[in-house]
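Internal ticket #5521
Category: modeling
Description: The requester needs a full-assembly model to guide mutagenesis choices. All entity lines are attached below as received. Residue total reported by intake: 872.
Assigned to: D.W.
Attached entities:
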Amino acid sequence: MAIITISRGSYSKGKEVAEKVAARLGYECISREVLLDASDRFNIPEVRLIRAIHDAPSILDRFSHGKQAFMAYIRYALACRAQKDNLVYHGLAGHLLLMGIPHVLKVRVIANLGDRVKSEMSREKISEEEARSLILRDDQERRKWTRSLYGLDPWDSALYDLVLHIHKLTVDDAVAFICEAAKLKQFESTPETRRKMDDLVTACEVKALLADEYVDVRVACEFGNVLIYTKSGGRLQHKLQESARKLGREIKGIHHVEVHPGVPAPAQAV
Amino acid sequence: MEQLTPEMILVMAMIGVAVFLFIVEWVRVDVVAILMMVALPLLHLVTPKEAFIGLSSNAVVSIIAVIIIGAGLDRTGIINKMVKPIVRIAGNSPSRIVIAISFTVAVISSFMQNIGAAALFLPAIQRVSKSLKIPISRLLMPIGFSAILGGTLTLVGSSPLILLNDLMAPFNLKPFGLFDVTPIGLALVISGIACFVLFGKFILPKGPDAASDQQGQEDGSSPLEEIGEAYELKTPDDFTHYRDPVRIDDLRRRYLVNVVAIVEPPDFKIVNPPPDMELRSGMDLAVYGVERDVKRMAEQEGMFLKDSLQVFQNEVAESASGAVEAVVAPRSPLVGKTLRQIDLQDRFRVTPLAIYRHGEIYRAEIGDLALGVGDAILLHGTWKRLKALQGEKSLLFTTPIDVDLMRPEKAVFAGFWLATALIMIMIFKIQLSVCLMTGALGMIITKVLTIDEAYQSVDWRTIFLLAGLIPLGIATEKTGTAAWIAHAVLNTIGTVSPMVLLSIIGLLSTVFTLVVSNVGATVLLVPLVVNMAIAANADPRMAALVVGLATNNSFILPTHQVNALYMGPGRYRSVDFMKAGAVVSVVFLAVMIGIISLVYGI
């Protein structure tokens, strides 16, 4: 009865760990499915979503804010999946996208650079030099991505409940640890944690529906009371208030919507 | 033309600094004035004596006295008593109500500070709006504009006019009498009201919420109704069994329901309990909230919702406590702060229920919103605590709560001393400040108000704004800067008829007053236009008078204190002021020039 997010680098055996954990606990195991959900729901080609979740935002993105909107779609899709509980997610940034949910077990799986280089060499049939530089570049890219979007370093172990280094520990050892942890009381879903999950889904949905048109909105939801934070004032604010009211009527589970202009958004806002 | 001296450049730089600071508002306007008061003698542009001469000027003393007299009249409740008969005379027609109240406000504001007159009438107008179902936006703007226009009825009606004689003194011009401006002022008030009666339909906002379509924001309703009403609930005996503690703040966050009073068994009553207080079993709660939310809370938390107020009949009833709307006053120290920073709950034990701003109601997490001028805050508390908060003067209460502080029996004395002051001015021709101070002193001696109340009523921000800008005027004149600019302007525009010159001065004053406040505009422009008029062979007194009057022509932006005050309760947006204000401003200028030429024959 938990949600497990597994963060991983390339060739770190994270996928294998995730699949085995899901099989042992009888949970659903997802990664790319989230992108497909988002692509279906919001009519965006999957390729563009992949680019959003993989590349660090370019200068251009900072103006167009396209990436922000795509991330909002992905986050909503993941939150919807997580709402059903009993889930292992090994896609990108699960620990960040489900921030603030108490019954999420956040795991990071890392592996020795040497081992990773070897796996890449054998899979892609390339030289050691090439494989090493590819892996390092990939790590760097993901680091930049999290930094630019969330201001956090994925290598900061304080972001996770469990960091497992696959070297002396085998994949099966890691699976055993994770399954053991998942059974702990603090990762059980309770009415309270489910309520928080519902609020997150609502906030994500509102944000996803607004993200296209309004660039700087952040949304928080608590007990079905939705607060939309924005920096912009004047005409746009009035329009946003209209859209917010409309969403408040359309989305189930919203009791009250308010737009708070010029107020710094709290940390839990999406 | 005279040579431009270094002193002149320095004075112009200081004017530039003052105007810049007025516009960007890094510090409050009165602080800018004090800055001038200190910087000018340091730069040797005025003597130290001249720097502080503003504090003892006729104008400043007159303003102090006018404020005290106004506070005295307010204390006796004379003005509140005037409202009822006026409304009765006006009947049910919106136009007649607008005419009657506007005219009364204008007359009162000719002897009081405009903002004071406007604030006095706000509750009455809200009542009229509610009882006669006239949208409040149709009433407030005409009445607010009349309060500003009423300032032109007498020479003590508004700060620019009070200042006028002092600013004209260095030129040895004949000072104006108290009622010299009355014919012009009367024409301005009548034309202003006529604008709204005739074109109200076109220039006033349609309804309070023509833009937003729903959410029950009916015409003229106050936040009081939109935030819901008082309900009483009881927690069951097993309320605390098997669950996390529920605190008062939790209910607010979850259901947007505000607990305003509780009774702990056996009968321990707390009004406005602290937000971190835990709810216990068998507790009675009085809450404010929307019915839907209260029902949801009762259902989800397992509370029992009573049909009517029982235990709290007395506590929540009007006699002991209640919910009132308070508006953030212009230049209030609360501007820019959040409710969380102000901490009303802790300091005054009153509960903020909602904030109303630009036609939007905020009920959730209102502690994070930074307050702005004109924001209306709905507060619940006992009358005693609300009174203490009112004493702080940072908020203007639109519901009168200081009933027992009224001294209606002193009305005769208040009237007598006002009449005495007026007779001294009109018949004995004694200097304005002396007459008004006599009236103020008389009120204090006959105990219309105590000396401490008199001191407290004085708005030091206005006093220092006036006193601090006067040396800037002196410097402009003394260094010859005013003459230099006047010549430069005249050289540019060429020879013009006095009529055109006065129109230009009127327009210039209107623009200045919108950006640098009416006092700032008057102080800067009077020396300038007097020089211009002398050079162009026009009457310099009339030029100064045009400045004194046209600096009241501040309707286009909600920068005037009265407009800022009415913006929140009237649910106006800046656009509404631009639309109606533009029309009134043009009419103001035309009527002013027309009447001046008729009465004084330019």
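Resolution: model delivered.
Comment from assignee: The first strand of chain A starts at residue 3 and ends at 8.
Ticket closed.
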